[in-house]
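Thread: Newbie trying to understand structure tokens

Hi all, I'm a second-year student working on a class project, and my supervisor (Dr. K.) asked me to get a predicted structure for one chain before our next meeting. I've only ever worked with sequences, so writing a 3D structure as a token string is new to me. If someone could post the tokens and maybe explain what I'm looking at, I'd be very grateful. Here's the chain:
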Amino acid sequence: EAQPQVVRVFNLITLQLGDDVMVAVKACMSPTESPLQLVDAINTVEASLRQHFPQVRWSFFEPDHSD
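---
Reply by user tm_fold:
Sure, no problem. This is what the structure looks like when written as tokens:
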């Protein structure tokens, strides 16, 4: 939720596989004008996640408006 693209995180699941980590997120995203802008916002959040946590090898991001 520290990212401006994310309004609220509903679920966050992590799974450690050896040295690698998988992350699954379900979140309410800030409004965008197009589906492509939503994809770009998700990619930005995932890139920031990997920058802060380089052990994240896989991330799965589900945008939603409710839990």
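A couple of things are worth pointing out once you decode it. The radius of gyration is 12 Å. The first strand starts at residue 6 and ends at 17. Feel free to ask follow-ups in this thread.
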